[in-house]
Design a protein that fits this description.
NDUFAF7, eight-stranded mixed β-sheet, alpha/beta, 425 residues
């Protein structure tokens, strides 16, 4: 079995839990955080600690912690891209959100468009939420059903790995302008692990059961019958997987990072499918560009891990908040989070989407704080502490970046290049 398929099974088990166990809600008893009344960073951290103590899920995202301001910035991004894409006054566009969490983001974006960009709101053909978690998708449907936006909503349960591998469609093929957004999804998409031998030969990682005599049982990378009593090990074989091969052909820089490297196969596959089915798309994907090392006990740190360390190693965290040394040694219902190399991913998009210097689209990478300042300076200002000027919009989640594909600017607007990296190859 390919490593990505094993990781996909682990993540599917994690996301099959009740929604509250997966994504927390940042609602205080008295409502959202009043950022203007915070005394500074220490006060913000204290409020966050209380929020984490009062919610069941393992994580609170930027969308939840910085509501409604973070999502309003995304609403501005959607409005700008729609306005640039719609040529005729009767044209409409689609919005697609992948991994919509508790539907907090969708609710705020649509309400912001309705109030601040009413002309754009009226031209929304549909807002489609795509999720691999049945429990989260059910919560999203329940949440949106009670809003003013229910008639615009579509909900699709999809296994994203099937989309990436081409065994199921992503979206209905169309030239309709489409804005695709995703926050903290890339870190939870299955990855492959590859090994480079002799500086050129690439081998793909497989998961195999360890037989009683210590030998690996089988080495073809196909599906295997797995039981909880059989230990699993990694084994490497010559590169043969079509999806992984096509990605490394377009983005060879992934194999230049280290002898052993994690490859965001599913993320690349989904981005490729998006362009195939919706060539008139723009997008914004935000996520972690680096992650801290796992917080391991002394015994865990000294123990020999089952898998081999590779560049882009994930953090594996259980429902009690304890980290584990690797994904093969973790208990059930662990979250597996990968960092994203945004420059490599952007270069893949350049080649996969065939974006040249005179194409109507451009690919950029921002630090998250720069993206928020670029598309929502008024929202950033609304979250600044009256005393110190601290704002989590700029000073929290400093390990996050945003990948954007946007309509190429026809004129230079003030501040449009701030913090932006254009990773053209």
């Amino acid at each position: 079995m390919l490593i990505r398929r094993h990781v996909a099974k682990l993540l599917a088990d994690y996301y099959a839990q009740p929604a509250n166990r997966v994504v927390g809600s940042a609602l205080l008893t008295e409502g959202d955080i009043n950022f203007k009344r915070l005394w500074g960073e220490w006060h913000y951290r204290r409020v966050c600690s209380r929020l984490y103590a009062n919610q069941e899920g393992r994580w609170l995202t930027s969308v939840e912690l910085m509501r409604p301001f973070y999502s309003r910035v995304l609403g501005n991004f959607v409005a700008e891209q729609a306005e640039a894409s719609l040529k005729d006054s009767h044209d409409c566009f689609d919005i697609v959100e992948m991994g919509g969490g508790r539907a907090t983001n969708a609710t705020i974006i649509l309400t912001h468009l309705q109030r601040s960009h009413p002309g754009i709101y009226q031209r929304i053909n549909s807002y489609t939420m795509i999720d691999a978690s049945p429990s989260l998708l059910e919560l999203q449907e329940q949440t949106m059903r009670s809003t003013d936006h229910a008639d615009k909503m579509k909900f699709e349960l999809k296994d994203i790995i099937d989309v990436a591998e081409g065994t199921t469609s992503f979206l209905n093929p169309s030239n309709t302008p489409t804005v695709c957004i995703s926050c903290e999804l890339l870190d939870n998409l299955p990855h492959d692990k590859v090994r480079v031998k002799g500086g050129r030969l690439v081998e793909q990682g497989n998961i195999l059961p360890l037989s009683e005599d210590g030998d690996n049982a089988g080495s073809d990378g196909h599906e295997m019958q797995q039981t909880s009593t059989v230990p699993l090990v990694e084994a490497f074989a010559p590169l043969s997987d079509p999806l992984l091969s096509s990605i490394l052909k377009l983005a060879p820089e992934y194999t230049r990072t280290s002898v052993l490297t994690w490859i965001p196969t599913v993320a690349c596959g989904v981005l490729h499918r998006l362009h195939q089915e919706r060539p008139n798309s723009t997008l914004m994907f935000a996520d972690f560009d680096w992650l801290p090392p796992p917080d391991l006990t002394k015994e865990q740190g000294l123990a020999k891990r089952t898998s081999t360390w590779a560049a882009g190693e994930p953090i594996v965290t259980d429902m009690d908040g304890l980290d584990h040394s690797c994904y093969l040694e973790s208990p059930d219902h662990c979250d597996i989070l990968f960092p994203t190399n945004f420059d490599h991913l952007a270069k893949f998009v350049h080649k996969s989407w065939n974006i040249s210097n005179n194409a109507p689209f451009q690919v950029d990478v921002y630090k998250q704080s720069d993206f928020l300042e670029r598309f929502g300076p008024e929202q950033v200002d609304a979250t600044k502490s009256w005393l110190t000027g601290f704002t989590p919009m700029l000073h929290d989640f400093s390990n996050c970046s945003a990948l954007t594909v946007t309509r190429r600017q026809t004129s230079n607007g003030e501040g449009t290049n701030k913090g932006k990296r254009n990773p053209n190859v």
